[in-house]
Amino acid sequence: MTLAEIKAFARKAAFAARREAFARGQGTACARLSEALEPFAGAPLAGYMPIRTEIDPRPAMAAHFGPVAVPVIEGTGLPLRFHRWTPDCVMCDGPFGAAIPAEAEEVTPRVLIVPLLAFDRRGFRLGYGGGFYDRTLEGLRAAGPVTAIGFAFAAQEVEEVPTEPTDAALDLIVTDAETIVPDPA
Asked: Which family does it belong to (predicted)?
């Protein structure tokens, strides 16, 4: 089996696990995420607008003290851009089904809440396969310190995410059950 086939199989299983967890509700996930964000008060934050059965970070984003942005996909193979978001800003349809702010005020985040399909305790995540967050984190980290926080249901944890050298690790993972500091060993 190729790595691409392994990742495709893992994505299918991860979608199913996330769908079941989504049906049960978020529980204390957003409160736990807000707590994890407290040390970053004032820092520019990027969250995301949930699609499908993604866990919803918006309550924690709205509570953050500092500028908040959401990702904008500008094209295949490109890193993400981030536009300022507020709970009451006007949104419009963006690529891949995610809403984006109608007004484009760019923000460079120092902390990112990262969506995912699956994660492991080493800090690796399985995304949708476009590599957007991997490219984005590589560029942001080259420019200075950045903290990437995976946000997921505990049911999305797997023993080991299939990885390749371009996969960017998370610094922290927050779930509805716990906050995990990855062990890259």
From this structure: Belongs to the 5-formyltetrahydrofolate cyclo-ligase family.
For the segment 100-145, what is each residue's pLDDT rounded down to a tens digit?
999 999 999 999 999 999 999 999 999 988 889 999 999 999 999 9
- Where are any strands of DSSP class E within the chain? 45-46, 68-72, 81-84, 91-93, 99-101, 111-114, 118-119, 125-126, 147-151, 172-174, 179-180
The residue extents of the domains of the chain are 3-180
Confidence of residue 185 (pLDDT cuts 50, 70, 90): low
Q: Which residues contact 146 (CB under 8 A, 6 or more apart)?
A: 109, 110, 111, 112, 137, 140
**pLDDT tens-place string over residues 8-64:** 878 877 777 877 777 776 778 889 999 999 999 999 999 999 988 899 999 999 999
Beta bridge partners of 71: 82
Tokens of 11: 């994505």
Give residue 123's region: left, alpha or beta (phi > 0; psi -120 to 50): left
Beta bridge partners of 149: 113, 172
> Which CATH number applies to 3-180?
3.40.50.10420
The Cα–Cα gap between 100 and 116 comes to 18
Predicted confidence at residue 116, as pLDDT, reads 94
